[in-house]
Structure formats: C-alpha cells, structure tokens
Amino acid sequence: MIISSNDTSSTVEASGINLAPKDFKWYPFPPGQCPPSYYVILQGICAPLIIIISTVLNSLIAVVLLQKQLRSATNILLLAIALYDTLTGLFPFPTYIYVFTFKNCNDYWPYNYGWFHRINYQVLPFIFHTCSIWVTVVLAIQRYIYVCHSEKAKQWCTVRMALKAIACVNLLALIVAIPMFIEGSFHPITVRSLLDPTKTLEACLVRDYSEDQRFSTLYYVYSVLRALLINVGPCTILVILNAILVERMKAAKQNRARLMRKRSHETRAQEQTSVTLMLVIVVTIFLIVEVPMALHLIIWGLLQLLESNFLSEFLIVAVQFLNFAVLLSYPINFFIYCRMSRAFRDAFTELLCPSKTQNRQERLPSTALRLINKQYNNDDNYNHLESNNNTHIEMKNSIIKIQPSSTVILNHRTDEALISLTPSMNSVDIKHNGTENSPDSIMQQHILFRDDAVTSKNKRLNNL
Predict the structure, then answer these.
(1) Whole-model pTM?
(2) Which of 121, 127, 129, 464 gives 264 a disulfide partner, CB atoms 3.0 to 4.6 angstroms apart?
(3) How many CB atoms lie within 10 A of CB 255?
(4) Which residues cross the membrane (predicted)?
C-alpha cells in the first residue's frame, strides 16, 4: 500500500512534517521528535553498557555450567536463565545504539525498518524474557521438591525433566507472543526527507489494532491474560515458594544439631542448604524487579478499562525505569554464584587458571608421598604406615601407587582404592592407645579404607 504525500485528504504539510493519515501513526514515533533526555541516558548510554557486561558474565556462566562435573538438573535451568537473559538484551541492542545512542530520529523512519524494529525491539525480547521468567518458576518448583518432597526428587528433578520443562516454556512463550505479530500492520508512505528535501523515501506508518474500537475488547482480554501468565501469575507462585523455602531453611537450621549426628551427613545438609539459599536469593532479586512491573500492568489495565488518563504520564515514564531495572538485574546472578557456590568458584578458577588448579592437585599427592616415604617400612608380612604421634595403621602386603589425577592410593592386587587422601575435614576414628584421635589433629587428611583394611581387628574405622 502506497500513500502519496500529495494526497491532501490524507496528509497535510505542517511545519515541514507530514501528518499521519487517519487511523495511522508514524512508527515508532513521529519524525523530528527525538526521545526525552532520560530515554537517551537510560537506553542510549546505560543500557548498552549493561548489555555488554551481562553478555560477558552470562557467557562465563554458560561455559562453567557446561562442564561435565557441573551438569545437573539445577544447573541446566541456571544455564537456560543465563541464555535467555543474554538474548533478551542482545536483540534490542542495535536499536539502542541506532536510535538512542546516535539519535537517528531527525528524519522519517524507513518502511523496511518497521518489522525489524518490531521483532527485535519488542517481540523477541518479550519471548526470551517470558522464557526466563517461567524457567525461574521451574527452578523454584524443583528446589521445593528437593527440600519438601525429597523422595520424589529422583523422579522429577532430573536433567531429562529439566530439558522437557524448558521445551514447554519455549512453546508457551511462542504461543503468548503470536498476537504481537498481528496486533498492527505496517504501510509505506512516500514523503520528502526532512534532512534533504530533494530526496524522497518510503516512510513507515503503522495501524495499531489495539486502538481500534472494534478490537478493543479482544485486545483488553489479551492484555489481561498476558499480564497473568507473564507477570502476576509467576510472581505469585514465586512468592509462595520462596516463603516456603525460607521457612524450611529456618526449620532445618534449628533441627540440624538434633537430626544430623554424623558429620558427613551434616556437611551434605549444609551444602544443600547453601544451594537452596543461593536460589532463594536469585528468586528474590527476580521478584524485586518483576513485582513492580506486574503492579504497573495491573494499574495500566484498570485505567484503560475505566478510560481514564489519571497517572498516564507517570506510568509511561515509570515503565522505562522498570525495564532498565530488569536489564540491570541480569549481571547480578554471576556474582551470586561466585559468592555462594564453591563448586562454581572452583570450576571458574580452573577455567581461567588451569595451571593453578593443576599445581594444587599435584601438590597434594606429592605431600602424601613424602609422608608415606618418610614413615613407610618394608617387612616380609606387613606394611606399616606410621604417623608423627606413633599412630600405627596396619595394611596387608601390597604395592602402593599414587595417581595425581585422583589423589587415590591404589592396591595393585585388588585394583581397589585403599586410601583416599583429600583435603576434606571428614572425621575418621582411629583407636590408638585406648583413645580415639581425629585425623584433623594428625595430618588434616581424610583416610578411607576399603573392605580389606576393615578386617584388621586392632582398628575401628568409620566412613563418615
């Protein structure tokens, strides 16, 4: 459809700028009217910087979580959230630079730019942000199952189920976004350039069906459903699950001393509590930026229903700051993972400084070998390992080999691990001279014996 600029019935010259025909408007905004200064600051300066930082940090998260030792159902969901957050910022990035950073708004927008702007600035960010929201809900549900229904965790909290949930979330986001493709139609109009009157170009007009009285009811229903599915509903679910998890964490902290007698069990419980706390913080930050957005949509919908302009200008400005707050929350997850997850820190350190990690792994077996060589005496029938405080640990004839990669001493006769030297602080009881001494006070190492070592009648060892 071509609308001639000479048709005075449809367009009128006013101050050198053509007025849009009836039922049409200039897209994305009238020519010659650059966005306000706060638009330029937020979306032309701050937003591109935040997107670059977020992309780098989320890429590091993805590389770390893709390592084999960190592949789990929870980490798959965290990886998906990092990916969706990155894509939510990357697709509108060209528009931020072109429109707001360089202020290319002094002339009519080309018709060919209409769909590009609509898809990259509105539709795709909406789809990926929707996916991020619902994957966060799936993550909270998964942690709820871990904490409150641990007997069902093996069935529901698996990598396979996590991938299925992500696929369902993608499908949901695509279905919800379908009306965005058809809620308006673009039309070209031939006009003279404002910068060079000798040139003509095809400007972009849009017919917005949401403002058409024939479709107003349908659009209102769609807006309410979208708000419920994308903002209000997920935030309500997350608030409830977050409250339950926090309450269970408090109860677990109070009962841990009474219920967890063995130190290894207590260590595992503390690790699970740390993971739960980390995810609770991630969800809480998500709610801090999403709940105000949900309230904004509710208030905006009510004002549209009542056909009132009350607070309309304030809401238009507020939504820009709310969108920027959502964008600002994307890089924060990286620092939360680094602060609260030791496994993530170790994997990240190994990724950046593999030589440092390798030296640390090689230093532990070499230290153990020096201790063994210093206190190891050959005998025809027995091998004795003697510590500095005269504690004797008796083992049958065997050839002892240390593998630096696993820091495990292997028995060549049985091909089983006899001793595992790790830097953990798990307690092992060794009966010595009528008393029980912890290896924490001996050599700060955890010594784990297999069945052939347990047969010794003079020793009592607990694998904690």
Answers:
(1) 0.71
(2) 464
(3) 11
(4) 38-65, 77-99, 119-141, 162-182, 219-246, 277-302, 314-336
- State whether 431 and 370 are in the same domain: yes
Answer whether 445's CB lies under 8 Å from 423's CB. Answer: yes
CATH number at residue 120: 1.20.1070.10
Residue with tokens 């290894």: 264
Q: How many domains, in total, are found in the chain?
A: 2
Domain that holds residue 421: 356-454
Query: Is 15 inside any structural domain?
Result: no
In whole angstroms, give the CA distance from residue 85 to residue 48.
14
Give pLDDT tens digits along the chain (464 positions). 333 333 333 333 444 566 777 778 888 888 877 778 888 888 899 999 999 999 999 999 999 999 888 889 999 999 999 999 999 999 999 989 988 888 778 888 889 888 889 999 999 999 999 999 999 999 999 999 988 888 898 899 999 999 999 999 999 999 999 988 888 889 899 988 888 888 888 999 998 887 777 887 788 888 888 888 898 999 999 999 999 998 888 877 777 656 555 554 555 556 667 788 898 999 999 999 999 988 888 888 788 777 778 888 888 888 889 999 999 999 999 999 988 888 888 888 888 887 765 665 555 555 444 444 444 444 444 344 333 444 444 443 444 444 443 333 333 333 333 333 334 444 334 334 444 444 444 443 433 333 333 333 333 333 33
